[in-house]
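CO-FOLDING WORKSHEET

Operator: S.A.
Ligand of interest: zinc ion
Run index: 134
Mode: holo prediction, single chain
Checklist:
[x] sequence pasted
[x] SMILES validated
[ ] output reviewed
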Amino acid sequence: MKNNRRFISRLDLIILFAAIALSVMLGLVFSGVFSEKETVSAVIYHGGSVYRRINLTGHKDDRIKIEGHEVLLEIKNHRIAFADTLCPDRICERTGFIGTPGQTAVCAPNRVAVIVISDKHNPDKDGEVDVIAT
Ligand SMILES: [Zn+2]
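OUTPUT RECEIVED:
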């Protein structure tokens, strides 16, 4: 009888832990759902056309060289910036890291522009691309 009672209490403990584990897992799942996970991308334009599109969400730290130009872009902590650019004003470098959809960084002398977009907000449809297409 004693053993049986101990077994039950142990089972209760297991059920309790299982319930806690389940609620934690559910909490993680729901927090993931309600945080509206979006994919943020950086679109690099060169001379008015898309040079490269980089998925910033989950992208590891990286450096991207624009071929034919002394333009180096750096990706850090899911954000992008002009890192080392040969241009007279260096306004592009002063912009710093951008990673919020809608943010832009432009290097006018090299005709390179970076626009941050998300899968929920597509500037291609809003016509924002026309701004830097000139
Ligand atoms: Zn520049």
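REVIEW:
Helices lie at 2-34, 91-95, 123-126.
The first helix runs from residue 2 to 34.
[x] output reviewed
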